Amino acid sequence: MKILGITGGIGAGKSTVLACIEERFHACVIQADRVAYxxxxxxxxxxxxxxxxxxxxxxxxxxxxxxxxxxxxxxxxSARLQTLNQIVHPAVKQWILKETARRRESGTxxxxxxxxxxxEDHYDLICDEIWYIRADEQVRVQRLMDSRGYTREKAxxxxxxxLSDAQYRERCRRIIDNSGDFAQTQxxxxxxxxxxxxxLYEN
Length: 203
Fold this sequence. Notes:
9 helices; 53% helix; Rossmann fold
């Protein structure tokens, strides 16, 4: 089984690229954010530790974690954010390691792991190749304004707190430019997959 890592800044269009890879190459896609969400649900590996650490004020009426309330707590205090990350990130990585092992045993030919912090959390150690999904700054800003209702200032601030274009380029094997028409992006993906040794999936 080949393991491909996908990363890039907010607004670059990673989800669209993932959907393309999943459909055209029949990949098993694992998104770290979705894993983190599941692990924070009641009964999940992170739920008890988070509720114990941050108290009942972060819970909704149905006892699920109110993500907005938790965000207000941690983003106002860098130490609290670090505490949350120390709970969630190792648990997410452990889950992903177990899932990739299970997929390998089941005969999956391609697993794709997507995470904003793929490089920072050292997923490069388990991936055969890392791709950087990028888009021009103004394109990313506009996407965030359209899809999330961000102001231009908020979009730029979030982007500023992530790795720079140069840092991604230095540490990733291949760059997929998703700034323009997606047909162009798809051609880049197909070419990159051929180089990676994975052909289009045919039923």
